[in-house]
Amino acid sequence: MSTEALYRTRALIRYNAVLRLRDPSQLISYLVTPMIFMVLFQPLYQKALGAGAVEAVTGQLVMFSFFATAIVGHSIFIEREWQTWDRLRASRAARVELLIGKAVPVFVVLVFQQAVLIVYGCLVVGMEFPHSLPLLLMAMAVWGFTLLALGSALAIVVRSRGDLIVASDVGAIVISSIGGSMLPTSMMPGWAQAVAKYSPGYWGLGMFRHAIAGDAGPALRAALVCLVFGVVAGAVATYRLSHGWGRSALV
Amino acid sequence: MLEAIDLRKRYDEIKALDGFSLRVEPGEIVGLVGHNGAGKTTFVEMVSGLIQPDSGTVLVDGQPPAKARDLVGMSPQHIALYKPLTVREHLSLFGSLAGLRGAALANAIDELVTLMQLTSFLDRQAGYLSGGQQRRTQAATALIHGPRLLLLDEPTAGADPETRQALLDVVKQRAAEGAAIVYTTHYLTELTELQATIAVASKGRIIARGSSAELLGSLPGQVRVRCATEEFHVSTTDPTTTLLELLEKAPRPVESVELNNPTLDDLYRSLVASDVD
């Protein structure tokens, strides 16, 4: 990347970060609510499983980080709603610069949310400290990428802000619940257990639990599946964002 | 500076451009007029590199639009601003994307803020600006890097007189400095003030092109002489001579005389009507 391109990318990251900072309400909500739920759910998991802190923390982390796809979706949707994306596309900035400028601040928000919830889980809920910090950082990065891609794909298919909110809320609850965020998959009905493996939530949850336990093999395997979900969704979103919405924008 | 040759673009059954050709020289302001749906915005988007033609060629300073983005400044028809960003932040963002930095960026912002009368709300978020202030801010983001080709798509739509005048003054100044300007509008009086040459678009192509004098020369004006007992009303391409002739033969006393030269509105109506026919 040339110096000029780096300069433009930095400018895009800066102003996209400003946009996020001036609209922090969603992030605050997705930080505070899981903190409360972790404390409430922990005794339930303890009775059901004999343990509970890791399950309570990672379950709420995965569910509310899924809710945070609304932040990703919103950051892209406003470009459609305000019709600003084409102005950026008409500038000297290359497509990759625009996408990096858009993605980095939201990725940071997603990773920040995960980091805060894990630290809170360790300090307040009583979750054991992760056995392998590099493995946990890998899990956070992979999960952040997966959510970024899923949220971006969501933003390009919805037709209104209302659609986005409904889709991200319902999607977060369904995908993360089916994946085992609310209760262990082993306690779910047979059909739900069969469906669970098709949910990115299932693999995200497994990735975090194995990473915290320091089990590199299973954590990496789950990370690979998450990456597949992310790459597919990301490819669809990237194609659409690169080509703009044109006259077909339905906002 | 801009050369578009035989551009064609189809959206399903709709021909947005159908053999659209236009050439704009440095320092020239071209007033691109036409009904909604005549192809003006599609053309502007094509020159900006946002959409590709199905066939035909667009060259900006001899290069395809995708390679000439630093030469082009584009202000779209609709307001396209980030509501939470201030005017200063918009200018800084678009200036940075155009490659300006440091003192050059600061100077460009200072100059435009003064020209476009943005000083008093420079640090106000776009969402809290009036419609006119948003128009000026948007135009400023297109002008920030001193582009050699300016594409202004209905820049004064819904603007107050103050905004309109500020924009027209800047457009004239930039043209005087050598920028080629494509100015789409429905307000034809603005083109007279800008001393723009005219391109009339209809059904995705240019149906008339020239200076307003050239295009208006072929249109009849109206002469009306009212006497106490009679009224004469003649359409003519030579209103002055016709008026003198009417005055010679009109019975006295003459109560009133009206001499109306054709306007750009007349030209536009005439051309579009004949194209529909």
Can you lay out the helices and strands and say which pair or pack?
The complex is a heterodimer of chains A (251) and B (277).
Chain A: H1 3-21, H2 25-49, H3 53-67, H4 69-81, H5 85-89, H6 95-125, H7 133-157, H8 161-178, H9 190-196, H10 200-213, H11 216-243
Helix pairs in contact in A: 1-6, 2-3, 2-6, 3-6, 3-8, 3-10, 4-6, 4-7, 4-8, 6-7, 7-10, 7-11, 8-10, 10-11
Chain B: E1 2-11, E2 14-24, E3 29-34, H1 40-47, E4 55-60, E5 72-75, H2 87-97, H3 102-115, H4 131-143, E6 149-153, H5 161-176, E7 180-184, H6 188-194, E8 197-202, E9 205-210, H7 212-217, E10 221-227, E11 231-236, H8 239-249, E12 254-260, H9 264-276
Parallel strand pairs in B: 3-7, 3-8, 5-6, 6-7
Antiparallel strand pairs in B: 1-2, 1-4, 8-9, 10-11, 10-12
Task: Report on this structure.
The complex is a heterodimer of chains A (251) and B (277). Chain A has helices at 3-21, 25-49, 53-67, 69-81, 85-89, 95-125, 133-157, 161-178, 190-196, 200-213, 216-243. The model of chain A is unreliable at 247-251 (pLDDT under 50). Chain A is globular, with a radius of gyration of 18 Å. Chain A has one domain (3-248). The longest helix of chain A has 31 residues, at 95-125. By secondary structure, chain A is mostly helical. Chain A is built from eleven helices and no strands. Chain B has 277 residues and is α/β, with parallel strands linked by helices. Chain B folds into two domains: 2-215, Rossmann fold, CATH 3.40.50.300; 220-261. Chain B has nine helices and twelve strands. Chain B has a six-stranded mixed beta sheet, sandwiched between helices. The longest helix of chain B is centred in the middle third of the chain and has 16 residues, at 161-176. The radius of gyration of chain B is 22 Å and the shape is globular. The two termini of chain B are 34 Å apart. In chain B, 46% of the residues are buried. The mean pLDDT of chain B is 88. The interface between A and B is medium-sized, with 25 and 29 residues. Chain A: InterPro entries: ABC2_TM (IPR013525), ABC2_TM_bact-type (IPR047817), ABC_2_transport (IPR000412), Nod_factor_ABC_transporter (IPR051784). Chain A: It is found in: Cell membrane; Membrane. Chain A: Residues 21-244 form the ABC transmembrane type-2 domain. Chain A: It is a multi-pass membrane protein. Chain A: This is Transport permease protein. Chain B: This is ABC transporter ATP-binding protein.
